[in-house]
Design goal:
There is one protein chain. By secondary structure, the chain is of the alpha/beta class. It folds into 2 domains: 5-199 and 262-272, Vaccinia Virus protein VP39 (Rossmann fold); 203-254, no CATH class. The chain has helices at residues 5-14, 37-52, 71-78, 90-100, 134-144, 175-184, 196-228, 230-250, 256-262; strands spanning 61-65, 82-86, 106-107, 120-126, 145-158, 187-194, 263-272. The chain has a 7-stranded mixed β-sheet with strand order 3-2-1-4-5-7-6, sandwiched between helices. The protein binds S-adenosylmethionine. S-adenosylmethionine is lined by residues 4, 7, 18-20, 65-68, 71-72, 86-89, 92, 110-112, 126-128, 131-132. S-adenosylmethionine (SAM) binds at residues 4, 7, 18-20, 65-68, 71-72, 86-89, 92, 110-112, 126-128, 131-132.
């Protein structure tokens, strides 16, 4: 199956074991001039630490859906859970094979297409719910959870829409639609937490990094191309200008105020009702 190259880029640059936003305890105290890559990794560890505190005591078996590069899987195994992992991505499959040396069960498929003989006490969707079709996802979760089993979701949802084409309005589910679909498929919401403020420092740091390092480097590169190869520079400008403008629009994705306007980053713990 295909490779998600954006996720691959994150994993190769940040080089942590996670592909999520991380969780910051005191966002208001952060000085972005001093943030290190290690602190980002610490925040990513904190995220799964906090998320795993929502796992009810009677849970033993977990399916880590959209397991990424296996950081959450490893954390949960170390906590003593019996964990299987699932991802449709070829690159992630190869990373998991290396990381666990074939010692865990890995399902190479989309969740919606997963055919299982097993049932689980809990399904974890850590920043993967937004990739999974809402109704098919709940239907599958219902099918493969034990009686009274749990669905633990941590992801961003759209709670406000306007007429703009803001990129925050794409690639995530509508919050109300998600919750009403959960009810329809017999999932009772038993806990929720809005972790937006705890996740935004990662975006703020990405914006800081872009403005401080990437943008000035790009500007210097363009200046240099203009000065040394004016003809090539002209052709390049003609070919790339429309794409460049589209990419500039994408920068809104690392603007935390734009995020807050449209999205909430939620933790939801659902329990399958026995109906
Ligand atoms: C942002 S990453 C999150 C990875 C990991 N859960 C974490 O918290 O670090 C999203 C994950 O969802 C996976 N994914 C995408 N579409 C999926 C689908 N239809 N079913 C299951 N997983 C999917 C991606 O391959 C990736 O592993």
């Amino acid at each position: 199956m295909a490779i998600d190259n954006v996720l691959k880029l994150y994993s190769e640059t940040i080089r942590s074991e996670f592909l999520h936003y991380g969780y910051w305890n005191n966002p208001e105290l952060i000085d972005y001039n001093k943030v290190t890559l290690n602190e980002i990794k610490t925040a990513q560890n904190k995220y799964i630490e906090n998320l795993s505190s929502y796992i009810p005591n009677n849970v033993k078996t977990i399916l880590d859906v959209g397991c990424g590069i296996g950081g959450n899987t490893k954390f949960l195994i170390n906590k003593g859970y019996n964990v299987e992992a699932l991802s449709p991505d070829d690159y992630q499959k190869s990373i998991l094979n290396k990381k666990f040396n074939g010692k865990i069960i890995f399902h190479h498929t989309k969740f919606e297409d997963y055919i299982s003989q097993n049932k689980y006490d809990l399904i974890l969707e850590s920043e993967s719910a937004c990739y999974i079709k809402i109704e098919k996802g709940f239907k599958k979760a219902k099918e493969i959870l034990n009686h009274g089993g749990y669905l633990l979701v941590s992801d961003y949802f759209v709670y406000f829409r306007d007429e703009t084409k803001n990129p925050h309005l794409k690639s995530s589910h509508d919050l109300n639609k998600y919750l009403s679909s959960a009810k329809e498929y017999g999932f009772k919401l038993i806990k929720e937490y809005d972790q937006t403020e705890n996740t935004m420092p990662t975006l703020d740091y990405a914006k800081y990094f872009f403005e401080r390092f990437i943008n000035p480097s790009l500007e210097y590169g363009i200046y240099s191309l203009n000065k040394n190869f004016p003809k090539i520079s002209m052709i390049f400008k003609k070919l790339a200008s429309s794409k460049f403008n589209k990419k500039k629009e994408q920068l809104k994705l690392i603007n935390s105020n734009e995020f807050r306007k449209y999205r909430k980053y939620m933790i939801f713990l659902f329990q399958k009702e026995n109906i």
